[in-house]
Amino acid sequence: RHTAATTPAAREDAGGHCTMAPISRTVALFVACAGSAGALVPSRWTPSSARATAAPRGRGSSVVVNMGLFDGLKEAFNPDAESQAIDEDRETPFDRWMGISTKREEAAAETKTAFVDSMAEANYQNVALSKPMGVVFEENDPSTGGVFIASLADGGAAAVEGSLKTGDQLVAVNGVSVRGLSFDDCLSKIVGVEGSTVSLLCFRGGVGNLYGNLGPSDEWLSEFLDKVKPAAAAPAPAAEPVAAE
Q1: β 135-139/176-177 pair status
Q2: Sign of dihedral through CA atoms 83, 85, 90, 96?
């Protein structure tokens, strides 16, 4: 008499040999892997393929069952591929078992952002603008601080000059670093500049490349600011004394 089961069960016959009880269901697992013609491979359990092997040593013998059901299954996937990233709300236990990445679309897109070297002078824009500059700044996330250019006023000094673009990160004002400062502190540096011209140094590469591990070293930035700092205005010549008549 056989007992139907959905999983294999080891039994011993009258001769002391270990055999497997017949299985009532045939389990087929199909794995589809894009780009591989041989990826659709059915596997099944049958009484012959699910036979246990053991040495005929009685009840104390160990039993080794070679299922073969999931052999090579993980190798059919590449968990490091960006195309396998899925939304967190779509994650299933099977995805976790396979090690498939569960990133949100925004996070996946952020990882694809091109690296821009923050210690390359070519990635900075240094401009001198007359007041009013026609630049609207917006604060970065408080975790990093600093501000970036949100928009340029049509016909303003910055738009006419043409070097700055929306998204540029403000790094220094008149050669003084404002990287990581709060919105109010950055604006106070601009407002506090004497004269009719303001020198702005901006980084074109995104906040992720300017702050954190990808940001420039303090030593490099200090040397670079010394190079781009506007020259101090020469003092006005002293008035010549008027000869008394």
Answers
A1: unpaired
A2: positive
CA angle 13/18/24 to nearest 5° reads: 85
Q: What does the block give as tokens for 143?
A: 């975790």
Beta strands in the chain (DSSP E): 10-12, 18-20, 124-130, 135-139, 147-152, 169-173, 176-177, 197-203
* Paired tokens of 170: 């403000």
Classify residue 174 as left (phi > 0), alpha (psi -120 to 50) or beta. Answer: left
For the stretch 50-81, pLDDT in tens is 444 444 555 555 554 555 555 555 555 554 54
Over residues 90-148, the pLDDT tens digits come to 677 766 666 666 555 555 555 555 899 999 999 999 999 999 999 999 999 999 999 99
End-to-end distance of the chain based on CA atoms, in angstroms? Answer: 139
* CB atoms closer than 10 angstroms to residue 148: 18
| Average pLDDT estimate for 20-37 | 43
**Token pair for 65:** 């069952």
Residue 201 tokens read as 């140094």
User: What's the pTM?
Assistant: 0.53
8 A C-beta contact, residue 159 and residue 134: yes
